[in-house]
Amino acid sequence: MKTKSGVRKFFKRLTYSVSLLLMFLSSESFAQADTSRTLKEVKVSTSSIPQVQTVNPSQQVNADDFKRYNAFNVADAIKNFSGVSIKDYGGIGGIKTVSVRSLGANHTGVLYDGVQLTDAQNGQIDLGTINLDNVESITLFNGTSEDICQPARSFASSSILMIKTIWPRFESQKPTHLSLNYKTGSFGLINPSFVWQQRISKQWSFSMANNWQKANGRYKYKVDGDGSDTLATRNNASLESLQSNASLFWSRNDSNRFHFRINYYRADRGLPGAVVYYNPTSNQHLWNRDLFLQSGYEKQWDNGFHLLLNAKYAKNYIRYLDPDFLNEAGELNQKYTQTEIYQSAALSYALSKNWEISYSSDVTWNALKTNLVNYDYPERFTYLNVLASRFSWNKYTFQGNLLNTHITEQIQTGSAAPSKTVWSPALSATYKPSEHSPFLIRAFYKDIFRNPTFNDLYYTRLGNRTLKPELAKQVNLGITYSKAYTHLLNYLTITADAYYNHVKDKIIAIPNKDLFTWTMLNLGKVEIKGLDLGIKTELPLSSSLQGSISGNYTYQEAIDITDPSSSVYLNQIPYTPEHTAAVNAGIHNNRFSLYYNQIVSSSRYFLRENLPENYVPGFTVSDASASYQFFAGGNAINFSTELNNIFNNSYAFIRSFPMPGRSVRFSFQIKI
Amino acid sequence: MKQLKLKFLLSSLLVLTILGSCKKDRIEDGSGTEPTAERQGIYVLSQGGINLNNSTLSYFDYDNRAFTFDQFNKVNNRGLGDTGNDVQVYGSKMYIVVNVSSTIEVVNARTAVSIKKIDVKNGTTARQPRSIVFDKNKAFISCFDGTVAVMDTASLTIDKYITVGRNPEGMAIANGKLYVANSGGLGWPNNYDKTVSVIDLTTLTETKKITVVDNPGSVVADQYGDVYVLSVGNYTTINASMAIIDSKTDVVKSQKDFTSGSIAISGDYAYITKWDGTVQLFNVKTELLEKENFISDGTSITSPYGVAVDDISGEVFVTDAKNYSTNGEVFCFDKTGTLRYRINVGISPSKVVFINK
After folding, report:
1. Where is the TonB-dependent receptor plug domain (chain A) (predicted)?
2. B-chain residues within 8 Å CB-CB of A656?
3. Under CATH, which number does the domain B4-356 receive?
4. Residue A166 per-residue DSSP state
5. What does pTM read for this prediction?
6. So what's the ipTM on this one?
7. Do A511 and B98 touch (CB under 8 A)?
């Protein structure tokens, strides 16, 4: 009932917000697409040189690269990226979030086909739950993305992780594509999946992807510090999940297309919990039931207009059970349901060949219901409006945007958090010495914030409705080199970006009165200085054999500058290594590929005080993969073996959450 | 004035020199400390952070003023585990109650060398022990699963679990009876227990439940046969309160609003911490609050967490948990409430115990 009234309210408000934009669009242009116009040419790059010369720093992995990194999910696929710290709670069902440039996971916006995945409750997206079956590419942008015709939300995070799924393309004689996959290996993993793409007519097609996995999640680990010298087994780590996706596509051509998608995710998992000395038992369990419906329409006119419409409905249900909780009921059984309705419209116009302007407007309605006692049942409207422009002049490119955010909330009883309006500017510039120069110099400034989550604002007793947004300022200066060669190397790309971030009004929990009375406050201040380096090259080893090497390095100094009289002043913030590096090297030909990957992290502190007792030693992890592909009767068949943590190193990202030792995964794929 | 400062500086320097190789920065204002003849030193139990396995047992030796951040780990080559909640010395042994790890660590009181680690579990499920008290050859351990474990102090085995109320916390012995505060703390935010179980120490059975104010936690007994029960309340509508139970009749003779944290009794005085950083001085003979703040020199404590009184020297030790996520401190005051010294210890220090020579 609540939801229904919410839906009504949503549409009522929507009419005000996007009406301005809709004035631009005649109903005629919606109804009929002009077929007489020439198909907008799609640039196909002849060289496989990765695109690094973007206005803002960007890093990308494509579907072909996933096996290089032994990637099983989105979190694995981006583990080598510069400036990225993954918080991995270990194992197959362990939560995996990313913090970019030490700003915290809440500052990373994750876009799935242009539409953000959100969690209004705690603001963090578990990237371990997104499988790679249907993913075409994953790109991380610091600041903003290249394209200014984007939903307003894509301007509203410190960094953007764009996950792009495959848009089916058919050759005339083959209306059906079927990819059958099977993965198995350590942790008792059984993982069948399929992707089915079907052409219905010249303009319509659909695809269906299903991924089911089941694993007991068990692995051996070494407990540090409890005096034991034998390995323990991680129990209650099972996972059973199903991700189903059905999409309908319509495209007249590349500049006039529509899609509609239903995505359902179901997961039941054991939560092994922290490894507590002398008490390894956990019987906690988590259930997820997530559904989203998403639709998008895009049209580019020859007169310079470009329209992008997106809409989404999402419902996420979580149930958490601790059957050992020592209260009167003998269990803790918490249920949370989040609902989101989202509408976005973006319109850009090319004033001239080198000047483009855009306006985007998003409206989102979020609500959270729980079975907690005395809960506030918050609802939130978020209005985002962005004006953006991109201008090239001679050797320079400038890109800038101004985002206006307006947030209003209401709760069932009492007064909700006051409404907020925030203006956030961003500006980027590049300089290329000459048209054919391999160098590009770039700089950006971005002022952005993260809004307090429902937990920050309304969690019973802990929440604080007067919280302000957490502000993050980013400054970046970088240089890139990108060149294709005719001999010795196919290409070489190098990127170097130095950055300075300043976070203020950081939302932190502070005890108030005693251990049991905490309040969320805008108290923290963090100063981050960092350096991201990346190098990538591919070289021909023989007429058919190619070698590839890539390396990334990150330096981060992220220090607490909240209070000079505090014991944590100028201390590195928790779980932030000063140095991280990743190297990937491999060889491949048409049939065979072999890759080696290594990640190195320097030591960290697990608490805010950089004291010896809070020290976590550095670690290194090595992975390798081998795959073999051949054709049989027109079908591509692929076998691959991935070996993770080859040297069986014992390590952890998060204290008390050990990562698995050596593990193996076998994959079989047939493309029909 | 100037001279005093100089003297202070010189003596601090001296202390620092003596400390030599031990962690110098851990102890501040060490001037004028004369160790009590009978005492060897103190142990401080710090809870650490939840799920971090960083509970520590710090040791401060009076003779050479040496400080060891984690004596337990140092001598046993393993950690205490997660959330050490109580520590008591009984005879030559010391008993450390580790809540989340669900163990009782029995150690040599002088050295902290482990004698036995006792699992307090129901099958594989943690019972979550909280506090420990002793009577003759028995140790009584309140467990969050609604029981009091009875342990033989010679064999170090748990012989019996007595069922009490929900989430029992503090305990005290008076008149041959054990008083157990049933907090119901996990009924947060609206379903607390509000009873005190009375256990007959000869039959080892619960004989009565006395009703007090919601969420009772600390329990202490005075020398006049009165049992003091401090209730936290429900943080909103029900205020924190103090109940005084007459152990002869097991009747609540007084129940008054009283804001409190931890309590320790020595002779006629109860020292009761309060969240605002003060230590209230309560006369148990007159049953009146004698001083709003025992601390007389203006020393400021951020988050007083535990309190202990040395019956011999009259020194009062108050632990400061600060923000419960960075290292805490222990403040030692003389009997007049003047700060003698302070020691930097682990996260959320909650208990101080005294070791004799």
Report:
1. 53-145
2. 51-53
3. 2.130.10.10
4. P
5. 0.89
6. 0.89
7. no
